[in-house]
Amino acid sequence: MSTAETLEAKHSFESFAATHKIKISHYHADNGRFAEYIWVLDTKKQGQGISYCGVEAHFQNGTAKKAVRDLQDQARTMPIHAHHRWPQAVTHHLWPYAIRMANSARNSVATEFDQPSPLELFSGVKIQNNINHFHTFGCPVFAHEPKLRNGKKELEWDYT
User: Fold this and answer.
1) Which whole-number Å values give the CA distances from 88 to 37, 107, 111, in the listed order?
2) Does any domain span residue 74?
3) How much is the pTM?
4) What is the DSSP string of 26-63?
5) Which domain holds residue 26?
6) Does residue 158 lie in a domain region?
7) Is 146 within the bounds of a domain?
8) Which of 18, 30, 93, 128 has its CA at 20 to 30 Å from residue 53's CA atom?
9) Does residue 77 lie in a domain region?
10) φ and ψ at 27, to 5 degrees?
11) Alpha carbons 44 and 6: distance in angstroms, whole number
12) What's the average pLDDT block by block, 10 residues per block, for the chain (160 residues)?
């Protein structure tokens, strides 16, 4: 990502946080993109602090590193399983959707019984998740043929 794209993502995250009445006051980051002048200037404009991990000190951000690894592991298994079930349709192009679905599931579901989900912890609002809203990744979905809506008797599903 470029610095401009990284800043766009920062502003998007801060807007999302603001919808939950959360103001981001500090970032803890690595020395790469986040040490660039434009990023530092933007954090100062927003009245935010920033601190950096030491070089090769990945242990300083271990919680975030573990969360990213778990998310990647979960997302990786979904397209692999779906590809075994439907190889002609499931390709590596679906990877972003697998990441998005894994992230949504991870944020919406509590990891322990009777504990709040990560989204509930973030927002401070009790959310009643409906498990029926979650679907299997890579499951085929078929569009209902318009001909059937007009009362004609034909094959109900078109697989083409």
Assistant:
1) 47, 31, 34
2) yes
3) 0.67
4) EEEE-SSGGGSHHHHHHHHHTT-EEEEPPTT-GGGGHH
5) 3-56
6) no
7) no
8) 18
9) yes
10) -120, 140
11) 16
12) 90 94 90 88 95 76 84 92 89 91 88 85 83 80 63 55
